[in-house]
Amino acid sequence: MLVHQRRDALIKNCLYIYPNSGVSLSRTHFNQWNLGSKMKFSCSQSVEKRGAAFAAAGRALVSLVMVFLLAGCQVYQFDPNSVSAENPGSYTTGTVPFTIVGEERPDWLVPESPDAPEVMVTRTTETKGSTGFNGASFFGYMVTLSLIPYYDEVQYEDIYALSWQGETLLESRVTYSIDSYLSLYFPTPMMFMGSLNDEAAEQAVARDFITNHHKDSVLALIDEQRREFEQANPETAAEIAAYLKAGGANSVYRPSAVLRLIDLAPDTNTLAYHAANSQVPGYVDLLPARYQAWLIGPEGLRGIDLKTQLADGTDADQLLVRMLNAYPDQSGDVQSGYYTGMTRAHRETLKEAGLPEGLVDRMTNEAPSAQLLAAAKTGKLRDDSGNIRTPTEEELLEQLVRQDNQGKFLSPYTSDDVLAEWVNSAINANIGATVGTGLGAAAGAYAGEKALEQVPFVGSFLGGAIGAEIGKSAGRETAISASGGWEAIRASSDRSFDDIHSMARYLKAKYGHTGNFKDAMEATRQIYPELAEALASAY
Given its phi and psi angles, is residue 338 left (phi above 0), alpha (psi -120 to 50 degrees) or beta? Predict the structure, then answer.
């Protein structure tokens, strides 16, 4: 039993025979050899992987370097030597006769009083453009395939302005340049010549650099204007008016001079005094609100004007019609004029003084209703019951035509509903034949262009666009001549239109049934070719 166990152990633990190899190893030796072989193979494999990784990293690095070396770029650089102003002086702060409003609030402008007039401070930058094509730089750029960058210089002007009531009182201008360097294939501009900032960032650098130049310039100009104001020292109304027309017209002391003029108002007839000076720019804006209320609005329709006309017996509705008809057609005109600046407090002042509420409520830039405007244009605002009436179709139609000859399109019919003299002249001259002759002459002049019709595109373009324009222009000039010329046409017209569609709609609705309408439109169409299309779409 014991002998068998030892024999089995010897066979299991001591011998391992490779088939057909003639080699026998103990199991212990075999395991050690097998482990060593595996370790050698793993180490060799790791070295190969590391080598491949290093090679890949190297290739990537080389690629990145090549991309960097062959990457074009454009850089910018502010040039301090290009600044047009002198070096900043010794100014630190300055006391000024105004308070500051606006985004720019320089701490070196110190108001004399917190109640001083408000002056707007603005700062803007204008691009003056490139200094011009640099031939030498472009040559180097091309020869070296952009290794030498192309150089350009762009000039800017920085403007520091002080304004009051929309008018400039003082201005400081400083010009400077920003250089740019461009390479299509290489990073040389970034490496040797410019900053890493973009153009906007370099503009910010320039603005910071020249702020002190502006400060010195502005404070020096204010000192100069102060000396002029103190030397003039206007005291009377006549002296102040003279100062405002001369040196004070563009001075930061202009608001101070206007305040002096206001302070000269007498204790009696004060409103009349202010009304007499209300045309002085900025005067009304500096008045106390109780006087402002009477002087805001279009000339003839201000509170003081309405009060005078009512006292003279003018009907309130007549005044309301004038106010409505004065309402601007363009929104820009509404914002800059009409009753701009009129507040609710102003209107309450006028109502308390006895102006009719219906008039005062219309002293606003808010658009009136379409019905109210339409009724006002007829001249009759109310019906028999006293209500705002709705205009008739005929009245609305009449609102399309102007009762003068200052419109863009002159009416072929006069206010007496007869043909204008120029239309009769055109009809009697057989204008269709005349225009045909004129077009024949134009065609002769145009014949030289026909040869180009053999060239694709050019011929069709000339034959269509240019030919049509030449024919239209020649026909119109011939028609104007046959009608007596522009002066005669305008002189014999007493009505006109602001646009061609109003003209077409009015003429078709008012005269479309008359026997001479066709001839009149034929004559008018020769002068206004666009009328034909407008008539076709008119209702």
Answer: left
Report yes or no: 490 and 410 within 8 Å, Cβ to Cβ: yes
The count of domains in the chain is 2
**Confidence label for 129 from pLDDT (cuts 50, 70 and 90):** confident
**Which amino acid type is present at position 214?**
H
| Inside any domain, residue 241 | no
Q: Which of 174, 205, 232 is the last residue of a domain?
A: 232
Place of tokens 């370097």: 65
Residue with the two structure tokens 């005291």: 235
Residues 6+ apart with CB under 8 A from 491: 405
Nearest Cα to Cα of residue 398 among 377, 367, 380:
377
Judge residue 342's burial from the number of C-beta atoms within 10 Å of its C-beta, 0-12 exposed, 13-18 middle, 19 or more buried.
buried
- Identify the bridge partners of residue 148 per DSSP, sorted by sequence position: none
Indicate the pTM of the whole model. 0.57
For residue 55, the SS3 value is helix
Q: What is the pLDDT of residue 89?
A: 67
Q: Which domain holds residue 533?
A: 409-537
What number of residues does the chain have? 539
Residue with tokens 């057909």: 20
For a pLDDT cut of 70, what percent of the chain falls above it?
A: 74
Distance CA 109, CA 314 (A): 52
Per the domain annotation, does 293 fall within a domain?
Answer: no
Report if residue 512 sits inside a domain: yes
